[in-house]
Amino acid sequence: HLPDMRTPTAMIVGLVLCPCGILLTFTGTLAPNWRQVSLIPDQPVDLILEEGIWDICREQQSSHDRRCGQADELGYFEQVAVRAAQGLMPASLVLTLLGLVVAALGVRCWQKEPRHLLAGVAGLVLLPSGLLSLVPASWYTHELWALPAPAGSTLAVGYSLVLSYLGSCLEILGGLALTLSFHHCCKER
């Protein structure tokens, strides 16, 4: 009986989804657009405020004049959902990086046999990393309309929040795929 030299499909799925997930989560964490505030009374009609977890930008769409580092006059950054995101999103990124390193060591495409136990452990690290970014994205979405905004303005979900959601889900799915490697360990015993 010759050893099967192909990398198991579940490991490949995990190694594709998790890096995609961390890219989306990283972009969502840094880009200042978790929420868009528009149609602000007493302001130009084409002015949009883009609020992230680190910065507030204002853009006038007709002139594409964009200025970041806007003053937080309403206490937006003091809100618990924003504070939680500031802590949990970077923690998720660090944990995902750690999980990807362990996954790379476990999958070892360049070796004859992958280390199933290590790949499974990587999955157990990547699962909570995805949850660590899913929690603040969900919490922020729940609080989106309750967070302080100029009275009478229109609020909308920003692309950074959507990217954070998608990245979290890809990390969770990739982590689940890698945990399937434990099945192989049980078969060997």
Automatic annotation (TrEMBL):
Membrane topology: Multi-pass membrane protein
Keywords recorded for this protein, A-Z: Cell junction, Cell membrane, Membrane, Tight junction, Transmembrane, Transmembrane helix
Any single Gene Ontology cellular-component annotation: plasma membrane
InterPro entries noted in UniProt: Claudin, PMP22/EMP/MP20/Claudin
Stored Pfam families: PMP22_Claudin
Spans traversing the lipid bilayer: 12-31, 84-105, 117-139, 159-182
MF terms (GO), sorted A to Z: structural molecule activity
Gene3D superfamilies: 1.20.140.150
Compartments where found: Cell junction, Tight junction; Cell membrane
Family, similarity comment: Belongs to the claudin family.
This protein's name: CLD23 protein
Source organism of the structure: Corythaixoides concolor
Name of the gene this protein is made from: Cldn23
